[in-house]
Amino acid sequence: MAVSFLSSVPSFLPLLPPRTAISPATAHPFHTARVRCGQIKTDAIASNDDRFSRRDVLQGFGGTIALGLLVSSDHMVEPAFAADLIQRRQRSEFLSNIKGTLFTAIKNNPDIVPSLLTLALNDAVTYDKATKTGGPNGSIRFSSEISRPENEKLSAALSFLEEAKKEIDSYSKGGPISYADLIQLAAQSAVKSTFLASAIRKCGGNEEKGQLLYSAYGSNGQWGLFEREFGRSDSEAPDPEGRVPIWGKASVQEMKEKFSNIGFGPRQLAVLSAFLGPDQTAIEELLASDPDVLPWVQKYQRSRETVSQTDYEVDLITTLTKISRLGQQINYEGYTYPVQKVDLSKLKL
Fold it and tell me: Quick one: a GO biological-process term for this protein (predicted)?
C-alpha cells in the first residue's frame, strides 16, 4: 500500500479525497491510522514515477518538514519520515544503474551466463536450516571456497563480477555493493538475458521483434519481490565445506535431498535445471529419469515452446527469489546516503 505523507500535513488536507466516516472513539484531529513506513512496497514508488506530484513536493520543500511529523494510533506513536521515500528512490536508482551495468557486461560476454547461474546457486545453497548459517552471503568469493570441487570452472564468473563491481562501486553514493547482492543480481540479469534470447529466437532472430515480444509477453513484472530483497550482507569467512553437491556428478536423488534440505522439492529442482551446469539439456535428461521430477521437467519444456513461456518464467523467478535470500536479514536502508537539507528561508514561494 503506498502511503501519502502529505496526509499528515494539515495545510494539504484539502488536496486529499474526503475521509470515510470514523467513530468518535477513534477520531484524532489529523491522524487516524498507524503507518509503518517499512511496509510500503517498493514497486508502488519506483515503478510509477508519474502517479502523483507528491515526490516533487517532498524533495522540494516538504521533505524537511515531514521528517518531524508523527502519525498516531490508539496505542502507539510512530515517526513517518519523508526520508523513507527518499531512501527508496536512492535504492531504486542505484539498482537500475546496476542492472544496466550487468546487462551490458553480459551482452558483451554471453558465454558467461551458465557460470553466473551456477555461481549464484552455489553461493546460496550453502544454507543450513538447522544452524541457520550459510546462504547467499558472498562467501564464495573467498579463494578457499571458490577453489572447491563443486565450484570448478566458476572462477571466471567471479572474476567477471569483480570487474563489474569496480564500475558499480565507482558510481555508488551509498557505499560498495556487497558480493552477496552482486552475485544474485548477476543471476537475475543472466536469467533475463536467456528469456530475451528465447524471444528473439521465436522471432526468427529479429532482435527488434524479439525485444517487442519480450516486453509484451515477458514476465518482467514478476521481479518486484526479488528486487526488493536488496541489501544482503557479506560473510566474513567461507561457509563450511560439504554443503554443495558437484552437480555434474550428483545423482538425481542427491540433488533432491539437497533441495529438500533447503526447503524445496522436485518442482524447484526442475525449474532450476539451467543453474546445475552448462549443459541444460543433459541435466534435464538426467532429471527426467526420476518419476518425481519428470512431470515438472516436461511442464517446463512445454512452457518454453510457447510464445510467452509464462509458467517457466514465473516459476523460475519465484524460485530464484526464494533461494536468493535464504537465511539473510535484508537491510532495506542499504546503499542510501544523506541528502543536502533544504534551507527553507531561501525558498521563494
Answer: hydrogen peroxide catabolic process
For residues 172 and 97, what is the distance between their CA atoms, to the nearest angstrom? 9
Does 175 fall in a domain?
yes
CA distance readout (Å), 14 to 11, 19, 135: 7, 11, 50
Q: Where do runs of H (alpha helix) occur along the chain? A: 42-46, 54-57, 63-66, 82-107, 113-124, 143-146, 155-171, 179-202, 207-217, 224-228, 252-261, 266-271, 280-287, 294-305, 310-323
Three-class SS of residue 10?
helix
Indicate whether 128 belongs to any domain.
yes
Q: Is 26 inside any structural domain?
A: no
Binned at pLDDT 50, 70 and 90, residue 39 comes out as: very low
Contact 319, 268 (CB under 8 A): yes
CB-based contact 80:70 (threshold 8 Å): yes
Strands 70-72 and 77-79: antiparallel
Q: How many CA atoms lie within 13 A of 339 on its CB side?
A: 21
pLDDT given at position 262: 95
DSSP 276-343: S-S-HHHHHHHHTTSTTTHHHHHHHHHHHHSSS-HHHHHHHHHHHHHHTTTT----TTTT----PPP-
Sole residue written with cell 538475458: 193
Is there a domain that residue 36 lies in? no
The secondary structure of residue 271, as a DSSP letter, is: H
CATH number, domain with residue 90: 1.10.520.10
Which residue range forms the structural domain that includes residue 231?
A: 85-244+311-324
Contact of 334 with 182, CB cutoff 8 Å: no
Q: What is the pLDDT of residues 100-155, one digit of tens each?
A: 999 999 999 999 999 999 999 999 999 999 999 999 999 999 999 999 999 999 99
d(Cα 114, Cα 106) in Å, to the nearest integer?
11
Quote the number of domains for the chain.
1
Phi, psi of 72 (to 5 degrees): -110, 160
pLDDT of residue 347: 72
